[in-house]
Fold this sequence. Notes:
Elements: E1 2-4, H1 7-14, E2 21-26, H2 32-44, E3 47-52, H3 72-81, E4 86-88, H4 92-95, H5 113-116, H6 120-135, E5 139-143, H7 147-159, E6 165-169, H8 189-195, H9 197-204, H10 211-223, E7 228-237, E8 251-259, E9 262-270
Parallel strand pairs: 1-4, 2-3, 2-5, 3-4, 5-6
Antiparallel strand pairs: 7-8, 8-9
Helix pairs in contact: 6-7, 9-10
Amino acid sequence: xxxxxxxxxxxxxxxxxARPLGLVPTMGALHDGHMSLVRRARRExxxxxxxxxxxxxxxxxxxxxHAYPRDLDADLRKLQDAGADVVFAPSAAEMYPAGFDTxxxxxxxxxxxxxxxxxxxxxVATIVCKLLTIVRPDRAYFGQKDAQQALVIERLNADLNLGxxxxxxxxxxxxxxxALSSRNAYLDPDERAAAAVLYRALTRARGxxxxxxxxxxxxxxxxxxxxxxxxxVSVADAETLEELDTLDRPALxxxxxxxxxxxxxxxxxxx
Length: 271
């Protein structure tokens, strides 16, 4: 497995990789959610590239960029064991050199996480656009846990004709339902137990007769957990993310909850 930290060196190396080429973009701190994407990409492609880059452009001024967990050596061991051919791990200066002044905005990013975290998806769309342009994969793999991110990337890829097939893979969960996330590392034992409320609350929405009833059920369940603080709950069209008044089409039920120092997100689909 090759570790490369410059765009020029990666482009030179990738020209010799077999096709089809799969890409798994990550911010590191790899857990089994990431590795499920890596394993699927390994099965479905002749060559596999992963990226590790904690993207400063998607963090707000009061968010956890400097505290975000990083363990490059452990990540590289996991990727090598999983059969990655190359890892692209550039510096911030490599991806955003002096004078960098071009960013990508996607309309669907304005809702939900985009409203809660202004500028977040501008950073996500910009870095993913750069990675798809640099790596030129045949397929790129993302997780359903970040459902809005996956929709943003699908739209970005289609609108700018970037040429990759975007594959969204199921959320990987702990036995109690908590979605795997690098930010789970922020939770102490009591907070970790409390964080299971996200998935329990989401599952209450499945039996609701209307979007409003679903929102009320989720809200009541989260509010019953003293260590959890709900930021938002949404029942939205699964493609446009417009809030629904009736359950007459596939719906994405999503929420953001603070538990201690961690801000956690999760979602389920109602067909």
